[in-house]
């Protein structure tokens, strides 16, 4: 445990942050966000960041914190709704945006982790997504070439970790987190629970420890709901 376990989120990020770096941040909406690591990135003052994430949090939460502090230069994302600050910064020209179809974003990250520099997909053919990208035909269909994504640092949030850094994610938090953990030079995982070696059935490990460099217990586990929709309870 001593090799990979760090006592605090700040300690887990110590020596890893620098201006102009690329960070992958897990999460889908507000599910599976590295809630404890993001505030430490903000506190560090590091700037001109390129951040790869499905979205940029929601008003007041998640990566919104780094937008609010003007530390993000560019977002590589799929979904940019529900975030007024994101919208304002992009429309004013203060924030660069590389918008990806969601499946393409996931595959670009997976390709980065697998060592595949480029791949072809039909998604985006004939749209602005394909502008400036090579197009080739396979079996009579056109495909657009997309390139891998890799990062200097991946920050992910898992449910449980063992001393070797093997990770398990819980439900929707098993979204972009597992692939991001494979596609960065250094991966830091904040986890809700540390378990003894041998706890995991090998078939139930979502991310092998070989991809995880540092582990820290979460200090924030708010698990906020981005948009709550309810309906009246039916009469018994």
TrEMBL record:
SMART domains (UniProt xref): CoA_trans
A GO term for molecular function: CoA-transferase activity
Transferase recorded as keyword: yes
Superkingdom of this protein's organism: Bacteria
Transferase listed as a keyword: yes
Keywords: Transferase
NCBIfam families, per the entry: pcaI_scoA_fam
Protein name in the entry: Succinyl-CoA:3-ketoacid-CoA transferase
The organism of origin for this protein: Sphingobium lactosutens DS20
Organism phylogeny: Bacteria, Pseudomonadati, Pseudomonadota, Alphaproteobacteria, Sphingomonadales
């Amino acid at each position: 445990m001593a090799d990979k376990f760090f006592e605090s989120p700040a300690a887990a990020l110590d020596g890893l942050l620098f201006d102009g770096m690329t960070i992958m941040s897990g999460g889908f909406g507000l599910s599976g966000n590295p809630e404890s690591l993001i505030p430490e990135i903000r506190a560090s003052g590091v700037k001109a960041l390129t951040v790869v994430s499905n979205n940029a949090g929601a008003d007041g939460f998640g990566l919104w914190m780094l937008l609010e502090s003007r530390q993000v230069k560019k977002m590589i994302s799929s979904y940019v709704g529900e975030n007024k600050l994101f919208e304002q910064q992009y429309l004013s020209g203060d924030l660069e945006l590389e918008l990806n179809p969601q499946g393409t974003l996931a595959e670009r990250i997976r390709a980065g982790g697998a060592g595949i520099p480029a791949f072809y997909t039909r998604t985006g053919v004939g749209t602005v997504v394909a502008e400036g990208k090579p197009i080739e035909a396979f079996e009579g269909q056109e495909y657009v070439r997309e390139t891998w994504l890799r990062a200097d640092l991946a920050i992910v949030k898992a449910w449980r970790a063992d001393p070797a850094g093997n990770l398990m994610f819980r439900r929707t938090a098993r979204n972009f987190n597992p692939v991001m953990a494979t596609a960065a030079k250094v991966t830091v995982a904040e986890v809700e629970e540390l378990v003894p070696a041998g706890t995991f059935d090998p078939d139930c490990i979502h991310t092998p420890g070989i991809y995880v460099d540092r582990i820290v217990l979460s200090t924030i586990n708010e698990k906020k709901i981005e948009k709550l929709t309810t309906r009246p309870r039916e009469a018994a």
